[in-house]
């Protein structure tokens, strides 16, 4: 496990009348071996290392970890055990890590999402698996190239989807050419034809627009998190803004806007902007010796592919927003930090 500390240092001015410089620094202290991954074991390892480094736990004013239950647990986690020792060591979840989990979990939250990303990855693997096929792709696309997915980096998903959002027609043309050209193996032709049929689907185009819009929005949030200066109230504001954006986008108007964007792609693909009927099999119910079947049309497609996904993301974002808001409310310093910008040097130090 790694230990990193962030601390405040005060540097006196060059002259007696000069204002002192207040600096916030972050230092990597090293790796420590872990004998137990429980909250108790990790806490003991952290406290032991801090004691060796002669860093008083009583001086701690915050703690932040990933989203493992052994770290963030509110009853037996590391943050709760250290908070019991020092009530001022407020826990702040790692927002960047939280977003990574939110997006990756949402990608696997429903069958439509999992199927969509599986197709995106299959197309990349197929085209990149042969220099000849990759050259066919390069002949058709000029700006963006295909990217693979990653299980640990959510940003790989926006990188993988962006070419589909803006060049889905060109990707389809590349697959169609491979399926027609006899210079490719029969297996390659068959795979290309199968993958091109997956693209030639209005529902798939809707999912391209859906995922690109949300990932593009979250991508902005992530860049903000990794900025050199990042204040807790600003993090709360941008999370609230993103949450409100998702709430509004989940409305009927948001869904209609999504359909309009997908229709533009359907014109490029020269397909009808209509959802194919989907038949859901239910348990056998005999009624006059007939099977009851339910045909799911556009409204139900919205519920399965659109609403379910947004609800999953919203629940996770609102949960972590609540954690950050609770942390901020425990100290008025975080609330009024913008007003403190008017102070300098000793004036600022005297207000803390």
UniProtKB/TrEMBL annotation:
<protein>
    <submittedName>
        <fullName>Zinc finger MYM-type 1-like</fullName>
    </submittedName>
</protein>
<dbReference type="InterPro" id="IPR012337">
    <property type="entry name" value="RNaseH-like_sf"/>
</dbReference>
């Amino acid at each position: 496990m790694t230990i990193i500390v962030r601390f405040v240092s005060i540097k006196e001015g060059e002259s007696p009348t000069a204002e002192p410089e207040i600096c916030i620094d972050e230092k990597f202290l090293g790796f420590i071996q872990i004998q137990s991954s429980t909250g108790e074991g990790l806490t003991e390892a952290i406290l032991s290392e801090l004691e060796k480094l002669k860093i008083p736990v009583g001086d701690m004013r915050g703690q932040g970890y990933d989203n493992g239950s052994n770290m963030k647990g509110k009853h037996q986690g590391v943050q709760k055990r250290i908070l019991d020792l020092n009530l001022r060591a407020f826990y702040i979840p790692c927002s960047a890590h939280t977003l990574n989990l939110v997006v990756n979990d949402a990608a696997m939250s429903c069958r439509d999402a999992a199927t969509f990303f599986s197709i995106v990855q299959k197309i990349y693997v197929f085209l990149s698996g042969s220099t000849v096929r990759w050259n066919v792709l390069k002949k058709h696309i000029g700006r963006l190239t295909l990217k693979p997915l990653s299980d640990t980096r959510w940003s790989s998903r926006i990188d993988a989807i962006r070419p589909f959002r803006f060049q889905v027609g060109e990707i389809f043309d590349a697959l169609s050419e491979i399926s027609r050209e006899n210079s490719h193996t029969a297996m390659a032709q068959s795979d290309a034809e199968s993958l091109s049929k997956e693209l030639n689907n209005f529902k798939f185009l809707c999912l391209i627009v859906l995922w690109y819009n949300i990932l593009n929005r979250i991508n902005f949030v992530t860049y903000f998190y990794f900025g050199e200066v990042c204040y807790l109230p600003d993090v709360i504001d941008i999370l609230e803004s993103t949450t409100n954006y998702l709430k509004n986008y989940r409305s009927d108007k948001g869904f209609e806007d999504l359909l309009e964007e997908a229709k533009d792609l359907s014109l490029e693909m020269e397909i009808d902007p209509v959802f194919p009927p989907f038949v859901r099999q239910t348990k056998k119910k005999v009624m006059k010796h007939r099977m009851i079947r339910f045909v799911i049309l556009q409204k139900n497609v919205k519920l399965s592919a659109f609403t379910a996904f947004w609800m999953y993301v919203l629940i996770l974002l609102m949960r972590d927003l609540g954690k950050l808001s609770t942390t901020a409310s425990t100290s008025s310093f975080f609330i009024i930090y913008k007003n403190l910008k008017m102070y300098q040097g000793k004036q600022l130090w005297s207000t803390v």
